[in-house]
Amino acid sequence: MDYIWRKLRSESVLRTPYYGVKLDKLRHPHGHEVDYYVIEHPRQAAGVVAVDADGRLLLVQQWRHPVQKLLWSLPAGGMEEGETPESAIARELREETGHAAAKYERLYSYHPNPATTNQTFHLFLATGLTEVAPRLPGEIHAVRWFDRTEIEAMFSRNELMDGLTLVGISMWLRRGSID
Predict the structure, then answer these.
(1) In whole angstroms, how far apart are CA 67 and each of 19, 50, 146, 156?
(2) Residue 89 domain boundaries
(3) Residue 14 falls within a domain, yes or no?
(4) What are the residues whose beta carbons fall under 8 Å from the beta carbon of 49, sequence distance 6 or more?
């Protein structure tokens, strides 16, 4: 049986500078019609697992309004028009932490929440870090290095709450030591 949901029509129901919402009328493979709301991101996003020579991970702390919390997360953000994932992570790392990396390695690209959004997230590992400039003022509350033991303790205390960060840190922990 063909299990493709057929789009019958689509209409935009909301546009903001950051995303849009569209309503798709779909025909389910079993024949009934379904209304499906999709959050459309005009930009892909990229994040970076930044690790220093001592094997410590660099995280940023930001206020996340939808959940009303300060959360630790990987340096990350939306890609600008015409920007590659590689240039986006270099820019985000510099803006959010004041650091640059000697080497960037692509780890993974994935859809963070394909049930509700079309966004693709590109994840990289950055090594050979140096502080190159003060971080830009703005959305970042704090920047801090964490060793593997601290990260694992944060996992066990349920203190890491950002899904994009959880994927990146899990991949970093799974790799073992990074040389």
Answers:
(1) 18, 25, 23, 20
(2) 45-175
(3) yes
(4) 57, 74, 107, 123, 124, 125, 126, 168, 169, 171, 172
25-76 tens-digit pLDDT: 999 998 999 999 999 998 899 999 999 999 999 999 999 999 999 999 999 9
- In-domain check, residue 1: no
CATH code of residue 140 = 3.90.79.10
Q: Give the pLDDT confidence of 123-137 residue by residue, as tens digits.
A: 999 999 999 988 777
Mean pLDDT of the residues in the chain: 92
Partners of 14 in the beta sheet?
Answer: 21
Check if the beta carbon of residue 119 is closer than 8 Å to that of residue 111.
yes
Contact 108, 133 (CB under 8 A): no
Which residue's structure tokens are 């909301």? 14
Q: Are strands 57-64 and 140-146 parallel, antiparallel or unpaired?
A: antiparallel
Instruction: Provide the pLDDT for residue 179.
Output: 44
